[in-house]
Amino acid sequence: MKTETRPATGGQTSGKQPPGRTRTSSGLAFALAVVLPPRFTPERVRTDRRYRTLDKYRFIVGFLALPLLFYTVFVISPFLQAIYYSFTDWAGGTTANFVGGDNYVKMWNDEKFWDSLESSLLLLVVVPLITLTLGIFFAYMITAGGRHRRGRAVSGVAGSSLYKIVYFFPQVLSIALIAVVWQQVYSSRSGLLNGLLGSVGLESLEQRWLGGDYKLALFSTMAVIAWSFVGFYVVLFSAAMGAIPKDIYEAALLDGAGRVATFFRVTLPLIWDTVRTGWIYMGIQALDAFAVVLIMVPPHALKVTPVYLYERFREGQFGYATAIGVVLLVLSMIFTLIVMRIGRRDQIEY
Amino acid sequence: MSAEPMPSDAVTDQPDASGAGGGSAASAAPAAGRRSADDGAKSAGRGQSGVLNVFSHAFLIAWVVMAAGPLVWVALTAFRPTADFLNDPMGLPTSIHWQNFANAWTEAKIGRYAFNSLIILAGSLTGTMLLGSMAAYVIARFTFPGNRLIFLLFAGGMMFPVILALIPLFTIMDNMSLLDTRPGLIIAYIAYSLPFTTFFLTSFFRTLPSGVQEAAMIDGASHTRTFFQVMLPMAKPGLVSIGIFNFLGQWNQYLLPLLLNNEDENNYVLPQGLAALTVSQGYAGDWGALFAGLTIAMLPVLVVYAVFQRQVQAGLTAGALK
C-alpha cells in the first residue's frame, strides 16, 4: 500500500509528467529491475527510492542466503534433531519411535556410562587447574621475571618471544598427531619416558603408562591435554598482562610490594576476566578429550564419555548415543554457569 | 607505554632502589654522602633481580624442553633404522637414514593423505572465508529486520559441543548422498567454521569507518562491488587472523572426517592417516615409517607457524579474548 502511494506523490511534486504515466512506466521498469543486473537498470529507476530499498534487500538476501542455508541445514538442524532423537529408539533407519525418557533411564542404570562420566568429570575439574596455573605462572615469568631496567617497574625476560614461539608449538599441531606422538612417548617398551627414566637410573619408576592402571592412564591423559594447551594460555595471559598499564606496577612497587604480592594483588585481579574465559574454554576442551583418548589410550584402560558415545554410535544405538550427547551439552552448560558465578568479581577498568 | 612519565631521576631509580627497601627518594638528592648509600642499594637491588632472572629463565627453559622435547625426539628418531630404535629408543641417529621417509610417503600413504587434505582445504578455506565475510559484512553494516536474530544464531552456534550434532549430521549427509565424498566434507568444514568466522568478522567490519563505504556508493559502485573492491581490502588484518585460525583448524580437523569420510582409506585426510598409522605400521613393525610420517606431517606446519608466528598467535587467541 505504501509503495503504491509514494511514487504518485513524488510524481505530483515533480510536476513534469502526468502522475499516471510515471506510475505505469516506472512500474514496468521496476519489475524488470528485480531480475536484471544493476547495469541494465535504467537511470530513472536507479535513483528511485523504492529501487534503492529493493537493491539493498536484494543484496542482503543474496549475501546471506548461502551462509544461512549451510548453517541451518548442517549445524542448527542436526543440533535440534539430536535433542529430539534422544527421546526415540532410533537405530539409524527411517523409523524412530518416541520412547520418552527411556534412553535416560537406561543411562542412569548403565554402569559403564557412569565410569566414563567419572573420568570425564575428573578431566573437567583437574585439567583446567593444571593448565591455567602453569599458563599464568609462565606468562608472569615472561612479562615480569626479567632483570630490572632503568625506568621500568616490571620488565619481560630476554627472548620472551622465542619462549612463546616454542610454547605455542603443540597448539598448531593436530590433536590426532599429538595423540600419536604421546602414544610413542608413553610406550612401555620403546617410549621416550621410560627411556629417560632408565637412562638416569630410575628403572623402578618405569611404568605401563597407558595400558595398565586406570588412574595412571587418566593421569597420563591429563598431562597430554595440559601439555598441548599450556602454550596457548601463556600467549593469551602474557598478552593480557602486557595490556596492564605500567604505572599501576610502579605504584605497587612504591608501596613496597614484592613480585609475589604484586602478582596476587595487581596482576591476577586485572587479568581475571581473561582467566575466567580461559577456564571455561579449557573445561569444555577437557570434557571433550575425544581424539586424545580414542587414539592414544587402549580402550580397556580408560574411557571418557565422548568416546563412550562414539562407540554406541558405531554399534547403531543412535537414540542412546544422542541422549549421551545431550547430557554432555547440559554438563558443559552447568560448568560454564558455575565458573561464571564463582568467578564473578567487580569489573576493574583501566 | 605512553603512560610512562618523563625519565626524571626519581622515577628511573625507584625500581632498583626499592629492592633494598626505601631510599629511593634519596637518589634525587645530590648530596655526596647519600650518593654512595644509594649506589649500594642499587647494586643490592640488581643482585636480587639477577637471581630472580636466572630463576625465571630456568623455569622457562624447563618448559621449552617439555614442549619441544617429544617433538624433537620424534624428528630425530625418524632418521634411525627401526632395529636401532627398538634396541635403544633414546639414541641419536648415527647416519642419516632416509628410507623411513620413503616408506612413510609411499607405503604408509602419507603423501596421499597430505594431498587429500590439501584438496579439501583449498575448497573449505575459500568457502569459509567467502561465505563468512559475506554474512558478517551484511550483519555488521546493514540494518534490516532479523539482523540481531541472525547474529545471535551464529554466535550461539559456537557454544554447542560438535559431537552432539554429529549423529544427525551423519544421516543428513547420507540422505543427500554427500557422505564419504569430498564436497560433503568441504561443506561440513565450512558449516562448522561459519559461527566463529562470522562472529569474529562481524565485530571487525563494525570497526571500519563508514565514510569509505558511502563514498563508494555515491560514486556509483553497487553493493557487491563496494564489498569486494572497497570493504574486503580494508578488512585484510581481520581476514588474515581468522584465515590462519581456520587454516589450522581445518587442516587439523579430526572429528568431522572421522564421521563423514570413513569409508575408503584412500580418501583419508592427514590427521586420520596419522591415527591409522599407529595401527598399520604397528602391525607391520615399521616404527621408523611411523616417526617419519609424524615428522612429515609436523614440519611444514611448524615452519609456517615459525614464519607467521605473530599472526598465528593473534589469530588463535583472538577467539578467547573476544
UniProtKB/TrEMBL annotation, chain B:
Q: Where is this region: Disordered?
A: 1-43
Annotated organism of origin? Streptomyces oryzae
Q: Bias category Low complexity: which stretches?
A: 25-34
Q: Which Gene3D superfamilies match?
A: MetI-like
User: Which UniProt keywords are listed?
Assistant: Cell membrane, Membrane, Transmembrane, Transmembrane helix, Transport
Membrane topology designation: Multi-pass membrane protein
Q: Which InterPro entries match?
A: MetI-like, MetI-like_sf
Key word Ion transport present: no
Major subcellular site: membrane
Task: Cite the SUPFAM superfamilies for this sequence.
Answer: MetI-like
Q: Which residues form the ABC transmembrane type-1 domain?
A: 114-308
Q: Where are the transmembrane segments?
A: 51-76, 113-137, 149-173, 185-205, 226-248, 287-308
Keyword Transport on entry: yes
Protein name in the entry: Carbohydrate ABC transporter permease
User: Which Pfam families does the UniProt entry name for this protein?
Assistant: BPD_transp_1 (PF00528)
According to its UniProt record, which protein family does this protein belong to?
Belongs to the binding-protein-dependent transport system permease family.
Query: Where does this polypeptide localize?
Result: Cell membrane
